[in-house]
Design a protein that fits this description.
By secondary structure, the chain is of the alpha/beta class. It has a nine-stranded mixed beta sheet with strand order 1-2-6-5-4-3-7-8-9, sandwiched between helices. The chain has 15 helices and nine strands. The chain starts with a helix and ends in a 5-residue tail after the last helix.
Length: 334
């Protein structure tokens, strides 16, 4: 295994096998990698006395790190397997780690490692997230497919979370057009996609139309907490978020409120011709912007979405990093 793969193995070890919180992991990265300019290979090869002296780690953290070191060989095999499968690791210290995500999430939430397959340049497009219930009604699904297709036709990157219901409809809409682009953020490890799902995705990934991404260990199964964490990345990567259908509790409700806290313009489907959607109405009351539907003016509505997305994209490119994230942006010599 070459040196780069060995370093990647250490990243997997720290991020997914140490049992440490995201905050502690990011704190270690700031001190060891950014301030000291050292590699994670060196980190796991050094003594616990140096861990204490440099990173000021407590005994229980050191015990977890020493236990994790026993899994290093397994992570090395996993990294080689990912490489053969054209699955890549993107670390929080890489230059092409999404700046938008660093601005949206604090150090307690920011994933130290993202696993991905596809072209990261898709994220440089105007990115519009679509979220909604797994049990959405047919009118909500039709809305999602239509607006996702229209946005993709106009050049947007449509981002969603790979669940049934609205997420699936957003993917279908975005990929139904010849050159549509979409990002799929998984609520589980990238290896947990079924063989059928992966075979269907590979041609679109290779064509540069789909970016597949996961913040979890490649073999991590789906659990509710991971789905909720995934939502923060979906909205964090988007300049604008659209809600197709929400209840007054659950994943979509939490994700939409999270988008508002992240400062994302939140457009909420508003309907008068079908039964009222309690969650949608409540989100509008909280500051969401009504998106009337059905409408004969989808082009006009979409133009406003693009304008808002472009304005926010420009602001975010100029916005200074949050103070607690500075050390995750700058190089060791800055």
């Amino acid at each position: 295994m070459n040196e780069d793969l060995q370093e990647q193995s250490c990243w997997l070890l720290l991020a997914f096998e140490s049992g440490l919180s995201t905050r502690i992991i990011n704190d270690i990265l700031v001190v060891w990698c950014k301030q000291l300019g050292r590699t994670l290979q060196e980190f796991f090869a050094t003594s616990k006395e140096e861990w204490i002296a440099t990173c000021h780690l407590k005994t229980e953290i050191i015990q977890k790190l020493e236990q994790a070191k026993e899994k290093l060989v397994g992570q090395a095999f996993l990294v080689e397997k990912l490489s053969h499968e054209h699955i890549h690791l993107l670390t929080v210290l890489d230059e092409n780690y999404p700046r938008l995500l660093k601005l949206a999430l604090n150090r307690n939430q920011l994933p130290p490692v993202l696993c991905y397959a596809g072209d990261l340049q898709i994220l440089e497009r105007q990115t519009i997230g679509i979220i909604g219930s797994r049990n959405a009604g047919e009118s909500s699904l039709a809305f999602t497919r239509e607006i996702a297709q229209f946005l993709a036709e106009k050049g947007a990157n449509v981002i969603s979370g790979n669940a049934r219901g609205v997420d699936r409809a957003a993917f279908e809409g975005a990929t139904s057009t010849d050159n549509g682009h979409t990002t799929v953020v998984l609520p589980h490890g990238i290896h947990k996609l079924s063989g059928v799902q992966m075979r269907n995705l590979v041609p679109k990934i290779e064509a540069g139309n789909v970016l597949l991404m996961s913040q979890f260990h490649p073999d991590a199964p789906w659990v509710v907490s991971r789905a909720m964490e995934r939502n923060k990345v979906v909205t964090g990567l988007a300049q604008v978020v659209i809600v197709a259908e929400a209840d007054i509790k659950g994943g979509t409700w939490e994700g939409a409120n999270g988008a508002l806290k992240q400062g994302r313009p939140l457009y909420v489907r508003q309907t008068v011709s079908s039964p009222l959607l309690a969650g949608n109405d409540a989100l509008i009351d909280l500051g969401g912007l009504p998106l009337p539907w059905p409408t004969e003016h989808i082009a006009e509505l979409s133009v406003s979405l693009f304008i808002e997305s472009a304005m926010l994209q420009q602001k975010q490119s100029e916005k200074p990093e949050r103070s607690e994230q500075l050390s995750l942006f700058t190089s060791p010599n800055e």
